[in-house]
Amino acid sequence: xxxxxxxxxxxxxxxxxxxxxxxxxxxxxxxxxxxxxxxxxxxxxxxxxxxxxxxxxxxxxxxxxxxxxxxxxxxxxxxxxxxxxxxxxxxxxxxxxxxxxxxxxxxxxxxxxxxxxxxxxxxxxxxxxxxxxxxxxxxxxxxxxxxxxxxxxxxxxxxxxxxxxxxxxxxxxxxxxxxxxxxxxxxxxxxxxxxxxxxxxxxxxxxxxxxxxxxxxxxxxxxxxxxxxxxxxxxxxxxxxxxxxxxxxxxxxxxxxxxxxxxxxxxxxxxxxxxxxxxxxxxxxxxx
Length: 288
Fold this sequence. Notes:
Blueprint: H1 6-23, H2 25-28, H3 37-60, H4 62-68, H5 81-100, H6 104-122, H7 130-146, H8 150-155, H9 161-174, H10 183-206, H11 210-233, H12 237-261, H13 265-272, H14 274-284
Helix pairs in contact: 1-3, 1-7, 1-12, 1-13, 1-14, 3-5, 3-6, 5-6, 6-7, 7-9, 9-10, 9-12, 10-11, 10-12, 11-12, 12-13, 12-14
């Protein structure tokens, strides 16, 4: 369980549910509970893809973690590197197969997510474009949910840019978790965050759903900015870690805001129910 970071898995599921809301599936294609099977398959797909990604993250970082994070599963001896490779491969396979049961578009997006995750784990995290690479994984994950209705996917492909920017900002500050961060990077992150929740707000206005989306947007803003402001005052490693954790957990609030902005506030509340469970899991298992 520690290796796949359970709290993070729930944020990936929330991405899918947000994408489903954007697609309009619940309004156009849902007639009975059996029709929800594709949604369940996409949730299973993202669990496999995200789980495989974080497992291979620890596989590629095993040598560095021996020095910087010896408590992690591989350097602590909880699991061998070979066992982790096998587990990560099975999770990826599960994710891809589950996505292809929904449709070709979903399957191809799943393959792209796997490729993006592996590229980030092997090379991206050490290079300047790494945060954008990590953001791409989340952007594609949102599209995976939207892929339930392919015409909508074609119309709203550009929405992937929003989580790309958001996660790129979170990933950029996460590089200061061990030795402390840069105030300049934190300020850039604050601007990126403002762009993200501002854009969701504009979409909510355009769809005539600002009022239902507003509580979720406010929650998101508080969750990401409270620890970020503390980190700006003292950019030490622990404060940076809290800012990163806040940014990751706030993904669920952001996904709920997506759902409300596209006209499904009861569904947004359902997504938000994942937040307290994710917070509880974050206390028991590492998030970063």
